[in-house]
Amino acid sequence: MRAKPEELAAVPLFESLSIDELRAVASLTDVADQPAGTILVAEDEPGHALLVLLDGTASVTADEKQLGTLGPGDFFGEIALLGDGRRTATVRAESPVRVLTMGGSDFRVFERDMPEASARLRVSARERSQRPV
After folding, report:
1. Residue-by-residue pLDDT tens, the chain, 133 positions
2. How far is CA 80 from CA 4, 6, 36, 72, 122, in A?
3. Domain range holding 29?
4. pTM beyond 0.90, yes or no
5. Which CATH number belongs to the domain containing residue 27 in this structure?
């Protein structure tokens, strides 16, 4: 299932995009519902997608340490896409979640066509990768 542009408008990463850009991003994504307890991404595994939590909550751990909690609008997976391709943390659904996924080749289109949003994502990735675990 594809995301709806109006759903994307509520996501901070995409808030600066025009309606046409939101439609373009929607065409690059898939949305899926996952039950509580699902591991959405696993630490040290290859990462091939950017993920955005649309509904629900998820916990973030690395080296078995709790790093934080994600909620609607939070994104993850960008470090693997922008770095060496490996996940730096595990993200597990704490409640039923609705997750938007943008695969690697679609992510490259997003980077090229939406440079302002891509720049915000890169800043976030840099900040996250510098946090002590």
Report:
1. 888 999 899 998 888 889 999 999 999 999 999 999 999 999 999 888 999 999 999 999 999 899 999 999 999 988 888 877 888 899 999 999 999 999 988 988 988 998 888 888 888 777 776 654 4
2. 26, 27, 24, 21, 11
3. 5-129
4. no
5. 2.60.120.10
